[in-house]
Amino acid sequence: MRNKIVFFLVVFGFAGAVFSAYVYAVPSKPQPPAFTPASNPYAKGVFANGIVESYQSEGENTNIYPEVTGVVVSVRVAEGQHVSRGDVLVSLDDSVQRAATEQQRAQADAAQTVVDELRAQPRPENLEIARAQVEVATATLRSATDAYEKQKRSYDIAPESISKDALDTAANQARVARANLELATRQLDLTKAGAWVYDLRTQERQHDALAKAYAASSALLSKYEIKAPMDGVVLSIHTTVGSYVSPQGVYDTYTQGSTPVVVMGTSTDVLGVRCYIDEILIPRLPSASKMQAEMTIRGTSTKVPLEFVRVQPYVSPKIQLSNQRQEKVDLRVLPVVFRFKPPKEVAVYPGQLVDVYVGEK
User: Fold this and answer.
1) What's the pLDDT score for residue 42?
2) CA 235, CA 239: separation in Å to the nearest integer?
3) Which CATH architecture best describes the domain 63-92+225-265?
4) Sheet containing 225-227, strands listed edge to edge, beginning at the edge strand earlier in sequence
5) Share of the chain above pLDDT 70, in %
6) Are the C-beta atoms of 75 and 237 separated by less than 8 Å?
7) Which of 90, 85, 63, 102 lies closest to 225 in space, CA to CA?
């Protein structure tokens, strides 16, 4: 009985093995691809990697760096927002520079006040005092002269009536009174003349220097607000409140390098594609007048015709495509720029990698 059970188990196991081998030997039907891979639509088309950019008539996306260092106190815009030229994008802490600017403004105002004071001379009150001093000196001279003349006549009539010493004293008093009148008269003329031209010029130049220092400080103060240099769209913001930024940009934790504080582009109605042609394939490129291209958006079957814009006549390392500064490659590429209108059926964003075939019309 036991031998029969073992026999049946062996036969059953063998049959199961044969059935399993048959089932797994039948080839399974392959799944259809999620999208049609990019294909060359041209007889002698050249393949290139491309990156989508905001369309610029020259250059690339606008990388914005601050001109001063500081801590971010507010971010005024959001990614994807349309902004106008002059709109504030990011504000930095300007407390120290603002205090310095106010100090220089006060110094310039004080210097201007001194200039106004010099130009307003003579002061009416000083002029009245100088005139009064002339009148006092005139009266003193008249009194001293009369006293001397009286004593002189008395001495001439009867020399023994007045001593020679008293007569000389009266004469000296008259001469002192005349000198005082001359001094008071000159002081009146000096007061009427107002400020000396050289004093005025010196003070004007000092005010001009302080005013220019204030203007420079004010210009520097305005740099603590990072503003949009053009009308466009904010593509990315690489900072936040509390971050430290400098003219070298802001430290990126992920790439461990410096990146722009803000990246801006033009309107998304028209986008650009920067294609990187392998230097080996450059001789196969058609002339600019005959060049055309087709772009395939990765992950889709969407193909978009491209319009040729320009060739950037400078062969550069491939690292420009991925911006990976630690990438070790020897491949060099020629950038060629195209433009296109974004298709309605699929979203396309700046920075997206695409496959491009460049051919001849």
Assistant:
1) 86
2) 13
3) Beta Barrel (2.40)
4) 225-227, 88-92, 70-75, 244-245
5) 88
6) yes
7) 90
Residues contacting residue 7 through CB under 8 Å, at least 6 positions apart: none
- CA 57 to each of CA 60, 235, 263, 309, 315: distance values in angstroms, whole numbers, following the listed order: 9, 18, 17, 8, 20
Give the list of residues 6+ apart from residue 299 with CB closer than 8 angstroms, or none. Answer: 34, 35
> What stretch of H or E contains 246?
none
**How far from 233 is each of 40, 59, 260, CA to CA, in Å?**
33, 16, 15
Tell the residue number behind the tokens 């106190």, with chain if given: 73
Amino acid at 72: V
Which of the listed CATH numbers 3.40.50.720, 3.30.720.120, 2.40.30.170, 3.30.70.20 matches domain 46-55+267-360? 2.40.30.170
Pull the structure tokens for residue 320.
């420009």
pTM for the whole thing?
A: 0.67
Contact of 155 with 171, CB cutoff 8 Å: no
Tell me: pLDDT of 239 over 70. yes
At 271, list the tokens: 């986008």
Under 8 Å between Cβ of 54 and 309 = no
